[in-house]
Amino acid sequence: MKSIYLDYAATTPIDPRVAKAMLPWFSEKFGNTMSLHSFGQEAKASLEENREKIASLINAKPSEIIFTGSATESNNLTLKGIALANKNKGNRIIISSIEHPCIMEAAKWLEGQGFEITRLKVDKYGLVNPIDVEAAIKPETILVSIIHASNEIGAIQPISEIGKICREKGVLFHTDAVQSFGKITIDVNKMNIDLLTASSHKMYGPKGAALLFVRQGVKITPLLHGGGQEKGLRSSTVNLPAIVGFAKACEIYKKEGSKESQRIIKLRDKLIKGILNKIRGSHLNGSPQKRLANNVNFWFELVEGESIVIQLDLLGVATSTGSACSSAKLEPSHVLLAIGLKPEQAHGSLRLTLGRWTKESDISFVLRVLPKIIKNLRKISPFK
User: Fold this and answer.
1) What is the domain range of residue 109?
2) Which residue in 196, 156, 154, 174 sits closest to 54, CA to CA?
3) Residue 9's pLDDT is what?
């Protein structure tokens, strides 16, 4: 049976070059970065060298990169840490209605602590209007957090424009760049970004390593207290093997990212065009132009997304419906509802995300089998 992985937005396999770079740091070089002896100092030197490599990818200073264990941790540290550090200035935070669940849930928690959350609407393509951001900023607003590119529908937000507005209004600006980091060029200075979240396992690095860029001078209250690692903002022994892998993944993207992106765009467009042409009642979710190079998201009339995912999996094709982080839930995706889909339409969604090892033959296979799957599921559809 075929084995085709089209769920790169959920997680990516580790690039063999990344795994090779990590290997010595599990056994031969195992020092704690806080230790004074040579083992510890070797580890400390590696940590700072890799911090520099990663910082250069977004034009940040190495001292502005804080390593965490996951994007969820980075996003929670941002919202809660900024809220706690600035509660004397104000209690309002602005997010979009299509944020990742970790932003949505952190915001909900803050509401319970007396903070006010403004959730901005998006258009039918899932895009935030910068004018709406400007209108929503009040004197009590302390943070704006807008996802750079949607994990579900691939919509790329006008981050530079939003950042410029926030800078002019004197409000901190954070972006969850988990899906865009390692796919789109990011310059935190040109884009007026004060805080940024990124994750290793979305760009062919290992799980267990992520970062939070915190612009110099930004005050943030830590959530973890202990040994004072990472400038006191994230106490915990750092996961050095994973950070080494993260940096290697960044290095590979720097050299190969542009060429890889062009290849993937051709495959993505072939898949979108093929589905629209071959399957009646198929609808593309998100913007046809302002979308990630690797993201394809559709909803199909009169079928359930879960059924499509299962049928494709039986043929060896891995895909998802809604967000992989919350796809076990039975509720329709909040992102698809936000772009105007009805619950029954949102339930008929399918996300296919491409990556480094996606071949043209994989796309051709999906275009061959998917129309039959949709046709058969419609015959037994409860939505008729």
Assistant:
1) 16-252
2) 196
3) 97
Catalytic option among 102, 166, 250, 325: 325
166 is catalytic: no
Question: For the chain, what is the mean pLDDT?
Answer: 95
Is the Cβ–Cβ distance between 350 and 300 less than 8 Å? Answer: yes
Q: What are phi and psi of 292, to 5 degrees?
A: -60, 150
pLDDT above 90: residue 328: no
Report the share of the chain in percent with pLDDT over 90: 94
Residue 316 sits in a domain whose CATH number is 3.90.1150.10
What one-character DSSP code corresponds to residue 29?
S
Reported as a pLDDT band with limits 50, 70 and 90, residue 384 is low
Tokens of 103: 């932003």
Using alpha carbons, list the distances in angstroms from residue 331 to 107, 138, 298, 304, 381: 19, 33, 17, 12, 19
CA pair distance 54, 189, nearest whole angstrom: 15
DSSP string for residues in 44-91: HHHHHHHHHHHHHHTT--GGGEEEES-HHHHHHHHHHHHHHHTTTT--
**What CATH number corresponds to the domain at position 209?**
3.40.640.10
Q: Which of these three, 207, 222, 252, is where a domain ends?
A: 252
**How far is C-alpha 258 from the geometric centre of its chain's CA atoms?**
19
Query: Which pair of tokens denotes residue 280?
Result: 């009646």
Q: Which of 223, 252, 281 is the last residue of a domain?
A: 252
Residue 384 lies in a domain: no
Taking the C-alpha atoms of residue 159 and residue 188, their distance in angstroms, rounded to an integer, is 10
